[in-house]
Write the structure tokens for this entry.
Amino acid sequence: MIHNPKYECMSREDMRKLQSERLIKTVKICYEKVPFYQKKMDDMGVKPEDIKSIDDINKLPFTTKTDLRDEYPFGLEAVPHSEIRRIHASSGTTGKPVVATYTENDLAMWAEGVARVMAVANIGPGDTIQISYGYGLFTGGLGAHDGAAVRGAIQLPTSAGNTEKQIMLMQDFGATALACTPSYAMRLAEAIHDSKIVSVHQMKLRAGFFGAEPWTEGMRKELERKLQIKAYDIYGLTEMCGPGVGGECECQNGTHLWEDMFFPEIINPDTLKPCEPGEFGELVFTSLCKEAMPILRYRTRDLTRLRYEKCKCGRTAVRMDRILGRSDDMIIIRGVNVFPSQIETCLTEFPAFQPYYFITVDRIYNEDTFDLDVELKSQFFSADPQDQMKFIKPLYDRIVSMVGVKPNIHILPPYGIERSMGKAKHVNDKRNFRA
Ligand code: DLL
């Protein structure tokens, strides 16, 4: 079902009108209340009066993660601190985290975004949503929690980890939906299949809301088969609110973005100019109704493309293709751009392989090395290199044809690759430490 048809199915013309009104208001607030934006706009010679409609968006400055770090912790706040009701932060790998603050209205808007995603699976009273995203500063746990509350569903806040207990509760409490990262969903699916106590056939699970990291169509099929559910993508980022910037509908043909709240653009990351409709590039968001921390043209680094045709589900909200990866996740091996998600795509094409992998890149004698650890499903595993070759060869050929670089493939024994409870880490680029 559609949670909020007024906004999810608005005509393009009305949406542009609404976006224009909201942008004009947002820009005025940014200029008047946030010295950071006033300076950026002054430096570019732009005044709030120059923004007359959404078509003027490219007159505005970009905001980057570095800007957010420089303004740590509350430099971008546009309301008195007494109006803040919650603080979240995304764990940066280095330095200070990126902080997000929320007013009462911001929390309500965020919960609505998540509720719209959960509504696609008719989640409502009587449904139990097991929330296995981490609770805490990470937005996944509490974001999914508040969205489930708006839908009137029962929130089961298990957080991430303690896998055996999670699957016991999933069965005993009759969870009907699961919200976690796709890699943790895979870990849970694996634990259910290995378990002698619980069985997927005794469970009531029917839907999964998976996001916070890139995942592939192959992974979706695997999760749907193993967990006997329909698996939906949920997208978001701390800088906009957290999960619920958009989500997939029942057609599973692109992730709808809630354009009444977040205005999306696709730009060429090198020229910073807008891409043609349908062209791949970097996703940029401007918040249209955030109060505590409005953000202009935030460069997400996520690479994707947008499609504006109306969806069969009736929603008009723009659809985004699966995120190929973040531009900062891309590794350049022997001069070729490689996205870890491409390896997942290749692996999931072979039924004998698990969708787990780990890439190690190094530079030895001035040449890049590309090592790929993979796992076979236990029924296919053999320690004999001769037996392994019959699995390695087709995978090797597929990776060379898709990615264009020759990997050194190593088959590890079952569970040889570390399982993740949150966002999985897939790469160790040792060249970074050799510079
Ligand atoms: O990951 C918010 C979230 C929580 C989204 C739970 C969905 C579910 P951050 O930690 O700030 O916030 O990371 C945001 O994660 O820019 C993408 O690179 C990636 N990401 C999030 N959702 C998806 C998705 C949360 N569905 C960053 N597909 C984003 C691919 C995703 N990548």
Summary: DSSP finds eleven helices and 21 strands in the chain.
